[in-house]
């Protein structure tokens, strides 16, 4: 991250492809084996459109847009989102594309705030997504 990014700075867009394999790998790493993340039957019986991505996976993917832009020495101070829609991941050999964009919405001597937007299939999946980075003194 360059020193002192200006309000309005637009982060490079991030697009991440999610498949059922992605969900299996995430379940193994996280220990979250809720059947809505692998069973269409379980998901639809709860009123979901089918298997959906883990919320924390969606959140982590969105954060990558900021960490990739800010660089390896960035200090993530806080991160909050509101889940607005689930990310359906069909078992069709294609999967789903999660698209993330963001911009700097506040910056001072101590922190930089980035507001993110995450969509899948044209639908907003995260709302009020905000990352605060600590600014290291020069």
From TrEMBL:
Belongs to the enoyl-CoA hydratase/isomerase family. This is MaoC like domain-containing protein. It comes from Microlunatus sagamiharensis. InterPro entries: Fatty_acid_synthase, HotDog_dom_sf, MaoC-like_dom. Residues 13-118 form the MaoC-like domain. It holds the Pfam family MaoC_dehydratas. One of its GO terms (biological process) is fatty acid biosynthetic process. GO terms for molecular function: fatty acid synthase activity. GO terms for cellular component: fatty acid synthase complex. It comes from the Bacteria.
């Amino acid at each position: 991250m360059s020193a002192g990014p200006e309000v309005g700075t637009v982060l490079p867009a991030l697009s991440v492809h999610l498949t059922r394999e992605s969900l299996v790998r995430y379940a193994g790493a996280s220990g979250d084996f809720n059947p809505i993340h692998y069973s269409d039957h379980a998901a639809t019986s709860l009123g979901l459109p089918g298997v959906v991505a883990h919320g924390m996976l969606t959140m982590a993917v969105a954060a990558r847009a900021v960490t990739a832009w800010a660089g390896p020495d960035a200090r993530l101070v806080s991160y909050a989102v509101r889940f607005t829609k689930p990310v359906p991941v069909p078992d069709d050999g294609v999967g789903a594309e999660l698209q993330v964009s963001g911009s700097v919405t506040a910056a001072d001597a101590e922190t930089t705030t980035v507001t993110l937007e995450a969509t899948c299939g044209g639908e907003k999946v995260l709302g009020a997504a905000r990352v605060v980075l600590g600014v290291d003194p020069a």
